[in-house]
Amino acid sequence: MMDQLSWMGESSLSTLRGDVTESNISRPESHQTVRSSNKRTDRPLETSLGYYLTSGGDEASTAVDQWLEWETLDLQPVALHALRLAVLQDKKSEALESLQPSLSYIERSLQKTGKTFLTSVDDGDERLLTDEEIQAAVQAWSKGLAACPKPRQIVHPILPQQGERNVLITSALPYVNNVPHLGNIIGCVLSADVFARFCRLRNWNTLFVCGTDEYGTATETKAMEEGLTPQEICDKYNAIHSQIYRWFGTSFDYFGRTTTEKQTEIAQDIFWRLLKRGFLLEDTVEQLHCQRCAKFLADRFVEGICPFCSYPEARGDQCDKCGKLINAVELKLEGRLEEWLETTLEKGNWTPNARFITRSWIRDGLKPRCITRDLKWGTPVPLEEFANKVFYVWFDAPIGYLSITANYTDQWEKWWKNPDKVQLYNFMAKDNVPFHSVVFPCSLLGAEDNYTLVNHLIATEYLNYEDGKFSKSRGVGVFGDMAKDTGIPADIWRFYLLFIRPEGQDSAFCWSDLLLKNNSELLNNLGNFVNRAGMFVSKFFEGRVPTMELNQEDQRLLALTTWELRQYLQLLEKVRIRDALRCILNISRHGNQYIQLNEPWKRLKGSDTDRSRAATVTGVAINMACLLSVMLQPYMPTVSATIQEQLQAPPLCNVLTEEFVCVLPAGHKIGTISPLFQKLEVEQVEALRQRFGGQKEATTTTTILQDVQELAKAVAQQVRTGTFDISSPASGLPGLISFLFKFQGDKVRQLKALGTEKAVVNSEVARLLELKKALQEAQGKPPVQKEKKK
Amino acid sequence: MAEASLKELVSLEKYLGLKKTNKYSTQGERKVPVLQTKDGQNIVGLVTIACHLVKAAKQEQLLGRTREESAVVQQWLEYRIVQLGAPGAKEEGRSTLRDLNGYLEDKVYFGGDFLSLADILMYYGLHSYMVDLTVQDREKFVNVSRWFSHIQQLPNVQQHLPRVHIMKNRIYTNVH
């Protein structure tokens, strides 16, 4: 363990050493003398850290001292103790518990300061702006709109252009059968949409495609349930998806589906190429088969214990908890894949979780993967012997990207077989990563047809709902079609979801937080600034932007705004959507401070100099508001358009460059100003939280209803197939009781999962045991006194 | 323990010649000293407060004049709170003193050749150890004794602690 400590020391020291330029730094000799047999003296950590800090030129302040001292006296012993517990005694949970108080202390301190670092100083206006930067900003400002690049005219079909930056954006195809919830939306389409809009504002040649993934057993099953054909189900749900995304303002260039001829064509083509090049092998794979319905069970419907992490509710092919594929089998293209991955990971912008997941898949070595299934609803395998099989969804679905593009334009190959000219961005949630980074590239590499492979893989973590997870069956959480009914506009949803986008780790949707962000950031910060600037022009300058004479303070503000703008551009280019949003809010905050300091409403009543000051401040502010509207467009397109409408901003201003230009010159007439955002009230939000919380009492009644329905259906089924025989002990009374028994068991499990009080659960368990006894009696077995363990 | 560190800080103030005595309190289980400054801020931790006082008294040379010197001073300040401040340190007293004895063999002060805050805090910290030592032990740890004797007779250092008498004559000649 001391090795661990000195290792920690080494790595901290080497991190710091990297910052220090003096080359002849060696460890101070005093270290050796302190390092004695006594283990507690083996800790010159902070000292050497402090030494390197001061060598690098940073002064240690009292705050830093305090934290270092706390670290030495409080954190280190606790951490060592926890380490001992975890490593030597294997008591991991105890170890974590012992760390709790220290972690809470850090958490509280961070909350109090509200800053990024423990000893942050308010960096608001302290930003060091050089004179050159200020001069450059002023020059750019005075250039005016005429000197700026014009927004590109979009002509469909959008095709890659020579000499331009061609960006192809895909969002993971949502499965048609499920209504998307907020987590799905932020993970895939919304994130991709923000980036797509950004690319367009940068005048890059952008194509954004998506669609519904429609093949697979789940659709077949749902079709049976609703008494429609699979195709009809897909039509119905594709429309629902499309509607939801449209409401959220998603700007697809094309939203398609996977059940098209093109899909069959392209998938079969790739299949043939793989077969001819010997990358496929024939093998038999164990699949669970239900004898009663003569069907192979879809992987998703098999539930059991994950062999890797012992999660008891692992389903079929992918364990929800640890993400490992069970029965995982891959194509033998290891060498080629690794080669491609090396270049892509190095040059491309992949989120850290994507890199990690991909590496761990490769590390386990590629194994052959089964790409067919015995189902009906899917892309048929074009071989005689495989006539009743279709392609497995994970071979087939990513090809959907290509086929959807093919349905958009028949020149799709210019995008998809053009890796040198096209940058491909894949957006998805982290559970889809292995398929997009390993399985699909393997298919494409093996097909040897110069396919465009993913350059940038952007994966999000999970979005949770309040304290738990989204659940359609239990009515917990907001689903796509319900968002509209809340009366909260789409742009507010967009803003909040993007604000809490789960980038480095899971995050949670929280109603009270939504209220807070709406009221503080949108209403009081952004909305307030734009509104004030607009109102001043309206009220005091007869709706015309006044003449501006920039003094030093104004010039500084221009430079500061330019700096934030550039940060925003850099961040969004790397798809750091959350961080870039904060740049917008920063600019707005600076704007509010600027107005507050200069008090134009007072100065207008003053002397001539005062009045010209008020004029300048108002003019600069209104231009900042216009810039904000452009920066805001990827996030809140409707609000952006509203601001531009209110300001009567020229449409040519919708381009993002590195410069903050005066787009609304003196004399420009603005329109009518009105508030952009509504305040959300606590009662309103509370009511919504109740509505989407999934009521517990309702669940019990619905379960009972469900039970009865299921029972009736099952009996009816038996009667239909002629297997129901009430007189026979084999399928009569016992059959009925066993149905009741099974559903009671489900109910108990459900109640326990919901965390219902013990008394309720116990009474249900008692009923379960009664049913068990009755069942055994009916089956002619003696009742056994056993405690049923769940 | 708690009051001891508070007394130390008060003594340190007096040593530094700071006129106004600040408000002290303790916090937490280990009774970490807390200083409340005039502008309402709280400074926590013995060493942190001590450094703050030194800076307030404009006697930064007590923290070392060069970077290397400050690093060494910081090291011994850390040693003070980790080694000497830890509960159960007394049992390890002998090995501690042995280490220190070896270290001080060729140095006048902990920082080498200049008086620093480290010497002062180490003095406060080691006082209880020195008091309990027999004459034989004091001879054994001759360098520590020499240093201790020197420090405690410096003006204004001793303050609240009783003087420890260290004999200059060697009685146990065959110990070394």
Automatic annotation (TrEMBL), chain A:
Gene Ontology process terms (BP): methionyl-tRNA aminoacylation
Disordered: annotated span: 1-42
Gene Ontology cellular component annotations, sorted alphabetically: aminoacyl-tRNA synthetase multienzyme complex; cytosol
Keyword Nucleotide-binding: yes
Keyword annotations: Aminoacyl-tRNA synthetase, ATP-binding, Ligase, Nucleotide-binding, Protein biosynthesis
Ranges of Polar residues composition bias in the record: 9-36
Highest taxon of source: Eukaryota
Iron-sulfur in keyword set: no
Compartments, as annotated in UniProt: Cytoplasm
Domain (WHEP-TRS) ranges: 733-789
EC numbers: 6.1.1.10
Primary site of residence: cytoplasm
CDD domains: Anticodon_Ia_Met (cd07957), MetRS_core (cd00814), MetRS_RNA (cd00939)
GO MF annotation: an example: ATP binding
InterPro entries in alphabetical order: aa-tRNA-synth_I_CS (IPR001412), Anticodon_Met (IPR041872), Met-tRNA_ligase_1 (IPR023458), Met-tRNA_synth (IPR014758), Methionyl/Leucyl_tRNA_Synth (IPR015413), MetRS_core (IPR033911), Rossmann-like_a/b/a_fold (IPR014729), tRNAsynth_Ia_anticodon-bd (IPR009080)
Family: Belongs to the class-I aminoacyl-tRNA synthetase family.
Listed NCBIfam families: metG (TIGR00398)
Protein name according to UniProt: Methionine--tRNA ligase, cytoplasmic
Species: Polypterus senegalus
